[in-house]
Amino acid sequence: MTTTTGNTAHNPERSWGEFGEIVTGYDIPVFNEREVRASAGILFLIGFTGYVIAWTTGFVIPLRGFAVLFLFDMLIRLFVSPRFSPTLALGRVIVYRQRPEFVGAPQKRFAWSLGLGVALTSCFTMGWLAAPLWVVLILCGICMSVLFLETAFGICVGCELQKRFSRKAPQYCPGDSCNYDPRPSRDS
């Protein structure tokens, strides 16, 4: 596995594939986990602000705005190109000077598909169904929890679910969690 420095614009060893980046030394398309985590942090900050406003005042308009932003961001990532996702682009700028840590694109696609499902459910529930505040807070609380785990601890819930339920083992997981076994050996 090759480690590279810099971003795609200044690194000839990186180029964009159909879904993910093609990086020398990796067998599959990948994403820079630092960019993804920065993006999750941006989404968490916006969403948590709306969540607190809804919780304390009952005013859900900012939370609805976040749900729509989240929905469009996931739609762009999955159906246009992750390169054009506003939060990933901003995350890319923020972590520009950090060494990339690459993770597999297939598990990110699965995770973002789950995020799209949560966003669609939330928008439908808040908009057309005009659900009570407690339902909205529960749905958005799930989303905020997943975003927090991603940004603060590097735990990709979608990646973990894909690892457990997919027939094909994922490659290049965050923190090498695909291959790392924290259980102590019997020899110790």
Describe the model.
Strand 1 (14-16) and strand 2 form a beta hairpin. Helix 1 (33-57) packs antiparallel against helix 2. This protein has 6 helices and 4 strands; from the N terminus they run βββαααβααα. It has a two-stranded antiparallel ribbon with strand order 1-2. A two-stranded antiparallel ribbon has the order 3-4. The protein has helices at 33-57, 61-80, 86-94, 105-126, 133-153, 157-165, and strands at 14-16, 21-23, 30-32, 102-104. The model is unreliable at 1-10 (pLDDT under 50). The chain has 188 residues and is mainly alpha-helical.
Helix share, percent: 55-70%
Mean pLDDT: 84
Q: State the strand order across the main sheet.
A: 1-2
Which percent range describes the beta-strand content? Answer: 5-15%
Alpha-carbon Rg, integer: 18 Å
By secondary-structure content and strand pairing, the structural class works out as mainly alpha
| Main sheet properties | 2 strands, antiparallel
Q: What is the N-to-C order of secondary-structure elements (H for helix, E for strand)?
A: EEEHHHEHHH
**Shape, principal axes of CA atoms:** globular
Taking pLDDT < 50 over at least 5 consecutive residues as the criterion, the unreliable ranges are: 1-10
Number of E-type strands: 4
How are the secondary structure elements laid out?
Elements: E1 14-16, E2 21-23, E3 30-32, H1 33-57, H2 61-80, H3 86-94, E4 102-104, H4 105-126, H5 133-153, H6 157-165
Antiparallel strand pairs: 1-2, 3-4
Helix pairs in contact: 1-2, 1-3, 1-5, 2-4, 4-5, 4-6
